[in-house]
Amino acid sequence: MYRTRGFLYAENGVSRKASTYNGTRALARGSKLLQQPSPILPARKSGLRPARRGMLFVGGLSLYCFACYGTYLYVTLGGPLARHSNELNIPEDVSDRYNQTAKTFDNEVDTMEKFMLMGWLRRSLTRRAAGHVLEVSVGTGRNVRYYDLKKCKSITMVDQSAEMIDIARDKFDETHPQYAKVRFLIQSAHDHITRPAPAGFDTIIQTMGLCSISKPSAFLEHLGQITNPQGGRILLLEHGRSHHAWLNRILDDHAPAHADKHGCWWNKDIQKIVEESGLEIVKIKRYHFGTTWWIELKPNQT
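The structure assignment produced for this chain is given below.
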């Protein structure tokens, strides 16, 4: 019995020693593990996924544009004149208003054009002018600073308003004092304009001009006749009817008041005007709920 108990005791003793030994090894391994540097896990990307960020950016930009355009409408349509718009009897030709507003015109439109990023659109259009250039409906010369004169052989600027074209001339002389191949004409672009080259003008530019012209399709057709048929372009930046019926109703309701005050019928169907001109449409892009039109045309060779 003793042996058996001794054997058992020894066996249990061995077991206890083995158990103690195993525990010591486990502690040693744990100590080594603690001394080893922790593995570097890949950093978890914070923020939104690119697609969601893009959606938020587009949504925010749309909201910004809507707010800017809403402010523009509110400021433009404000006052007692707007409330009686439909009672006004305004002629289709309202170009004479520009003589009255020439001195204050830039101040009136500067803030809204900045909010609506119109400077960027003007620049993208005007920087394409090359060769012999004609700009019609020059106004106060809001495109003058965007010209790349290295690409321009000559520039002809035309407007019916003597007061406005005087301001445009002053801007040009201040911005481009060394450029001598420029002329300013106080006349309608429908009237004869001496061409600087037999083939005609290589680039014709007009920004925000169709709104004040009584027969805009015939006017564009005339511009096509004085454009160089070999690579000449007509570049337009205009405002007119929107994609949206609700916005067109607002434009229609207040068009007479706006035309009487600013000399601009802002609800014209630009697409129809361009199609009726007979010119070939190269490109059309639209902004501000479809009311701003960026257009490239060329003479129709057929």
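Interim note for the steering committee: The beta strands are 131-136, 152-159, 182-186, 203-207, 233-239, 280-287, 292-298. The chain has nine helices and seven strands.
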